[in-house]
Amino acid sequence: MTWSQGASPAAGGRNGSHWIFNPYLLLAFRLLLAAIFIYAAVQKIGRPHAFADEIHGYGVVDYGPPLYIMAVVLPWIELLCGFSLVAGVAIRGAALILIGLNAMFLVVIAKKTIGYVSDGTPFMKIYFDCGCGFGATYAWKKLLEDAAYLIMSLALFAAPRHRFVVSIRRRSS
Amino acid sequence: MLRNAILQGIAIAAVSAVVGFAFNSFSRNGINPFRVPVKVPAATDSTQAGAEGIRVIDLEEARRVVESGVSVIDARRRDEYDEGHIPGAILFDYYDMGTYRDRVLPLLSNEGEIMVYCSEITCEDSELLANELYLLGFTKLLVFKGGFAEWSGAGLPVERGDL
Description:
The structure holds 2 protein chains of 2 kinds. Chain A is mostly helical. Helices cover 59% and strands 3% of the residues of chain A. Chain A has 5 helices and 2 strands. Chain A has a two-stranded antiparallel sheet with strand order 1-2. In chain A, a hairpin with a 6-residue loop joins strand 1 and strand 2. In chain A, helix 1 (23-44) packs across helix 5. The two termini of chain A are 32 Å apart. Residues 1-14 of chain A have low confidence and may be disordered. Chain B has helices at 2-26, 59-67, 78-83, 97-104, 125-135, 147-153; strands spanning 53-57, 71-74, 90-91, 114-117, 140-144. Chain B folds into 2 domains: 1-36; 53-153, 3-Layer(aba) Sandwich (Oxidized Rhodanese, domain 1). Chain B has a 5-stranded parallel sheet. Chain B is an alpha/beta fold.
């Protein structure tokens, strides 16, 4: 089995028969992730000052061009990934980006959460605005959500095939 | 499959960057993404009145500053401002730069001092806005860290509604 044959090692067998690759479940993952990321993007587009401050609040990137470029471009990446998943165009590319984004979100939210825990705040009571576009929430809830989004993105990326997609075929004659 | 996915991902990122920069350049709230932050001189010594840079002041000095007629900027949201603000304060919502920049900057003098405050001691918007004002050429800035919570909590006069 090779990658070029369209099946990944995670496909659960030659036919990709693992339950997570059920075409309807994959479609549900696509629509759910699309709704979440399009909504989150719309909350951030047009307010780069606020988004830059929210990113800065994680203490990972200081004020400067890298932070401002992230504040300007990241919401549009989320929006385009969402549209790709809905339209069924470049699904694996969008899934690959979402894997990277969700992994990054998990790391920075975990880092911030550890900071609160070391300051003496009980884990289950840590409540803050992650800057994700959905307002303030409990850290444990956000970590679980992001882990779920990461698993969905991985499933979309590793699925041997997708249905309900836009397919462009050349005429043979 | 991986190669195709990477190429698709690069294409999505490239289109996002083009659209994002184009939108940002036309947006009223756009920022200059390539701006290198200026190191703003900070002075914490209260004897340095009138000094250039950003100086953090306490409630007592804030009260004297307001009484002396210095320009006062409220960096909070409109609804918070309408509920109550320091007398004479001008609203400048830090997160709606496009709207307030054109409206408020003509009212300020870059010769005199300007005091900025936000909600309470933990909010950062007063310092962020002071930083922006410094970059725009207003160099004598005072940040009242206690903010509106400390001002109103001390029983000092409060104005309601729009100025």
